[in-house]
Amino acid sequence: MAFHVEGLVAIVVFYLAILAVGIWAAWKTKNTGSEGDRSEAIIVGGRDIGLLVGGFTMTATWVGGGYINGTAEAVYVPGYGLAWAQAPIGYSLSLILGGLFFAKPMRSKGYVTMLDPFQQLYGKRMGGLLFIPALMGEMFWAAAIFSALGATISVIIDINVNISVIISALIATMYTLVGGLYSVAYTDVVQLFCIFLGLWISVPFAMSHPAVTDIGLTAVHQVYQAPWLGSINSLDIYTWLDNFFLLTLGGIPWQAYFQRVLSSSSATYAQVLSFLAAFGCLVMAIPAVLIGAIGASTAWNQTDYGVPDPKSKKEADMILPIVLQYLCPVYISFFGLGAVSAAVMSSADSSILSASSMFARNIYQLSFRQNASDREIVWVMRITVLLFGASATAMALLASSVYGLWYLSSDLVYIIIFPQLLCVLFIKGTNTYGAIAGYLFGLVLRITGGEPYLYLQPLIYYPGWYQDDNNIYVQRFPFKTLAMLTSFVTNVIVSYLAKYLFESGTLPPKLDFLDAVVARYSREHMDKATLVKSDNIVLNELAPVNPRHSLTLSSTFTNKEAFNYVDSSPELSNTEDN
């Protein structure tokens, strides 16, 4: 296949446009707010993200290259089809549930990252433990996106995959480095517009190609392969439900989502943006579904692609770029793929920023350097953006099973972080002992269930398991959801048991080595109070609008819900009395 100059030019134009918008947004960030809250402007955009930009960037939390490529692939693959394309519905419901139940308490209490409530209630040790699966999820997601992007570009213009991955990662890291959330948010607007326009322009041309049969016919009748509507066998219903709950509930506890929630000017705005993004996810999936259906309705031996077809060549994951290249005119193909390639970064950049935000605030600042200046935190974020961007790029280039690693890490987010988030926001009385027990139980149950993508054999064989063609044991039982529920129940039971044993005198106070039940004046509780009391961490985020600076506790907590929350905290009350 020859080198396509036109395709390279199209992609370069789109990339330069994205980079220009990112740099402009960085300039906007520099000229917004005071120098004293520069780190806040990078993490949550000064909490003044508007409705339009906020709606786009919230949608881009999930809509990117992996989302559209994965949806098209699921519809195309015989035996799966639209019935197994769960991402559009799952992530849309995830955003709706997030808006209904999680956005308001997180935003109204003025948190800066998703890990803040964990460190406030459970202490810095537990915050560090929960940072691990959160970091793994963000990093492997970014690596999987870069890997898919490199393969997409190599298909359309026939250049080395490694070069395309490195260039794409450099651009995404560059504008994230200089602009933070503002750059991510404003480039999301351009990227989603490009992906929507590029795909919708391509669909009519691909559908009218002579080799394509009416997709209405192939939806319910077998022509070149099984109908693309797909079906769910009775044996696979529990696997389908397990994956659906993973997407719906496991799509909530991600820093990439809460970064958008916490950047909203108010809790109500955060809820509205979540609902808008749910609608946006569904709309953005429509052209991807149609392209997957077109791929399943094409006689590939009548195209320049030739035989065998993509699924026989094990290129089903590349069905979207293949359809655009071989079923559309050259200029439409390059425009569509240029737009898609640029838009892929809309998810990768936010993952890199999310990982660096959690590390700079929850690990570096709150755990080790509570007196760090704002300038110091900004530089820590910049360094970690570079490190995490380079790490994601290296994994995309070197790891043979990036998607397998991301599947496993996303499972850990669902199994470990989601039940912990439920407890910390809605279950009163949970403590560090329960959190650690729930963490360990969930982790053990997930690892012992095996992972086919990583060729990890299970240690626990649940009902319905079977052995595939590669001699890998696959579980049909919904063990991921079982592990999540076990983690949640364990957290609650162990927390209340520990509280009863210490408060009843059954266990002496000296055994409360985590200072989670008995101790009231320990250093650990002072660290918890620091999150919501110390003047070293300015609480201007609690004010719904700018301007926002105050040095007194009563005037800082302008949000009544947050103020009542602090008053009701026993450890904070005791701290103030001293």
UniProtKB/TrEMBL annotation:
It is a multi-pass membrane protein. Keywords: Glycoprotein, Ion transport, Membrane, Neurotransmitter biosynthesis, Sodium, Sodium transport, Symport, Transmembrane, Transmembrane helix, Transport. GO terms for cellular component: axon; dendrite; perikaryon; presynaptic membrane. PROSITE patterns: NA_SOLUT_SYMP_3. It comes from the Eukaryota. The chain crosses the membrane at residues 6-27, 48-68, 80-103, 129-157, 163-182, 189-207, 237-257, 269-298, 318-344, 377-399, 405-427, 439-462, 482-502. Its main location: membrane. It is found in: Presynaptic cell membrane. It catalyses: choline(out) + n Na(+)(out) = choline(in) + n Na(+)(in). Pfam families: SSF (PF00474). InterPro entries: Choline_transporter, Na/Glc_symporter_sf, Na/solute_symporter. GO terms for biological process: acetylcholine biosynthetic process; neuromuscular synaptic transmission; synaptic transmission, cholinergic. GO terms for molecular function: choline:sodium symporter activity. Homooligomerizes at cell surface. Interacts with SEC14L1; may regulate SLC5A7. Belongs to the sodium:solute symporter (SSF) (TC 2.A.21) family. High-affinity Na(+)-coupled choline transmembrane symporter. Functions as an electrogenic, voltage-dependent transporter with variable charge/choline stoichiometry. Choline uptake and choline-induced current is also Cl(-)-dependent where Cl(-) is likely a regulatory ion rather than cotransported ion. Plays a critical role in acetylcholine (ACh) synthesis by taking up the substrate choline from the synaptic cleft into the presynaptic nerve terminals after neurotransmitter release. This is High affinity choline transporter 1. It comes from Lepidothrix coronata.
